[in-house]
Structure formats: C-alpha cells, structure tokens
C-alpha cells in the first residue's frame, strides 16, 4: 500500500515520541506497540510493507545544474529517484564527495540490521575521553551510560559526533560499517575514519567518500527495501523524520505537507550534503541525495544550494 504521510510536525511528534521513549528505556518494541498503519497513533511512513520493486529504471535524465554551480561557486552532485516509476534525475551523481555526517544514517541502519529492535536497549558507557567537537547530547551524559537507541537517535537527529563514534564502535569500527554497506551491494563508499577526522574532505582522498547515487541507493535499501524488518525500518524512519538539522536543506523548498526523513552533513572545503526519503501526499516515495563542495579548504557551505538542487530534482521528476 502507499502510505499517505502526515505533515512534518505531526510526523515528528508522533513518530519520535512514543516509539523512542520505549527504546531508550531498553524495552523492545512489540508488534502491538510498533506503528502498523498510516492512520494509527504513532504511525510513520515506514510502517507499510516495502514498496514493490519498480520496473527497470529508464535512462536517467541529466539535471542541468551548471547555472546553480556557477551562482554558488560550488560543485554539486544530485541523484533523485521516484521509487514508483523508477525515473531518476542526475547531476554528477557518480562523482565522489566527502559524505560527512550523512554516514550516520547508514550506520544507524547497519546497527538496526545487526542488533534488531531488541538489541537497542544495550547500555554503552560515555567517558570524558570519548568526547569530540559538537556533541550536544553525549556531553550531558559523561560518566554514565546511554542505550544504543539513545546513541543512534542522538547521532541521527542531532548529528552528535561522539554518538556517531559510539555508533561506529558498536558496529565494530569503520571497517565493519564498510563491510555492512558492501553487503548491500555498495562497492563505492569508503568508510575509513571516525569523527572529526572523516570531515577532512581533502581533494583526491577517497577515504570517507561516496557518490550521490550510492548514498541514495543505500538509504533506500535501509528505509524502503527489505534489508530491515518492519519494526527496524519504522525505528529508522522515526529517527530520520525526527532530525533537527535538515530544515534548511532538502525539505526547505518542498511542500509543507510532505514528510521528509533526512540526514545532513558538513565538512571541509565547503562540503554540505543531505540525503532524504521524501513521502509526498500522493504517490510513491522519492529518494534524494544532494552533495556539494567548494575549491577552498576553508570555504563556507551554503544550505540554499542544497535546497535549490533538491527542489529542482523533484520538479524534474514531475513531482511537487
């Protein structure tokens, strides 16, 4: 079935509250508690069964974003796919970009695949030596413990960097996440380092990089595919739709009543990224990845570039 999503504010209040409240206390989500239909309390777009595989995708249509790149003095890569028709719009979608914190969404998916909902109650210690720059949640928990659910939620919804590292540690380190993505069929993404080193984004360095196409395909596999079970997909979707870091990115120029679950990222060389699953009020979900950077190491990023590129991609798909 096609799930008709709630507005972003409704989705966040319903999806993130009751569901994560159970997880952070270490309780498993039972089928009776987990969202099951779009009309039930606490429902999320991931509550439906995985969308049926579309017909073979037509040849991707290039999205002319040269003017946008010139205006923002940046390089931008886009891959957007309508999961109902298989139509895709692309621009530099096979070029490498530093993935920055978008990797946290994939790490959360890999964690759910590894431990399941039942394993999210496991406690992990938070030590002072663990703290790295930008850790708004974990810095308040030093000397105590957090559940894996709390760690993953902090990493995805707040982009907490220490939580991101604890998430990688729970998986077995960067190499383990790299292997998990390879199991999805991803032979492009190179997971090498932890926060904050992964944000170096040095020119020509393939460490901690991926392509817009691969990033979109990986998130699609975790959120809309059958890699995860129903409960695990519902939890991941609740984290993504509950993010607090993406309001000025993919979702910024889309209709206000569409539900967007996303993970943003920023790094050196003006890197600014966002990867999202978008549930329009009608029709199948859209998966969008926008990645961007600039030539100078200390260049600032511009959220408006990502927002404009995403809006152009969705419009080119005939949606919105």
Automatic annotation (TrEMBL):
UniProt keywords, alphabetically: Antibiotic resistance, Hydrolase, Signal
Domain Beta-lactamase class A catalytic: 77-291
TM spans (from-to): none
Ranges annotated as biased composition (Low complexity): 35-50
Catalytic reactions of this protein: a beta-lactam + H2O = a substituted beta-amino acid
EC numbers, comma separated: 3.5.2.6
Entry annotated with the keyword Signal: yes
Coiled coil: none
Signal peptide region: 1-30
Keyword Signal in annotation: yes
PROSITE patterns: BETA_LACTAMASE_A, PROKAR_LIPOPROTEIN
Residues covered by region (Disordered): 35-64
NCBIfam families hit by this protein: bla_class_A
Family, similarity comment: Belongs to the class-A beta-lactamase family.
Protein name per Swiss-Prot or TrEMBL: Beta-lactamase
The organism of origin for this protein: Cellulomonas dongxiuzhuiae
């Amino acid at each position: 079935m096609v799930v008709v999503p709630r507005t972003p504010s409704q989705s966040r209040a319903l999806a993130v509250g009751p569901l994560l409240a159970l997880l952070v206390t270490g309780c498993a989500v039972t089928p009776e508690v987990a969202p099951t239909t779009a009309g039930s309390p606490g429902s999320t777009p991931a509550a439906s069964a995985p969308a049926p595989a579309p017909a073979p995708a037509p040849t991707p249509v290039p999205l002319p974003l040269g003017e946008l790149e010139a205006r923002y003095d940046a390089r931008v890569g886009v891959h957007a796919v309508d999961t109902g028709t298989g139509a895709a719009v692309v621009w530099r979608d096979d070029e490498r970009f530093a993935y920055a914190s978008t990797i946290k969404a994939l790490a959360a998916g890999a964690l759910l695949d590894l431990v399941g909902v039942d394993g999210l109650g496991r406690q992990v210690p938070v030590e002072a030596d663990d703290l790295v720059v930008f850790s708004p949640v974990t810095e308040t928990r030093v000397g105590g413990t957090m559940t894996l659910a709390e760690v993953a939620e902090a990493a995805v919804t707040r982009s907490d960097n220490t939580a991101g590292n604890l998430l990688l540690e729970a998986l077995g380190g960067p190499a383990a996440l790299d292997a998990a993505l390879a199991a999805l069929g991803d032979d492009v993404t190179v997971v090498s380092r932890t926060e904050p080193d992964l944000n170096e984004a040095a020119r020509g360095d393939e460490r901690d990089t991926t392509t817009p196409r691969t990033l979109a395909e990986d998130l699609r596999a975790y959120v809309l595919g059958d890699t995860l079970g129903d409960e695990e997909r519902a939890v991941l979707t609740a984290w993504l739709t509950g993010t607090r870091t993406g309001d000025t990115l993919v979702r910024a120029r889309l209709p206000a009543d569409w539900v967007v679950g996303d993970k943003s990222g920023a790094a050196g060389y003006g890197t600014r990224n966002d990867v999202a699953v978008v549930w329009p009020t009608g029709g199948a979900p859209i998966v969008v990845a926008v990645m961007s950077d600039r030539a100078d190491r200390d260049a600032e990023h511009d959220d408006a570039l990502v927002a404009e590129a995403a809006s152009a991609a969705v419009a080119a798909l005939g949606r919105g």
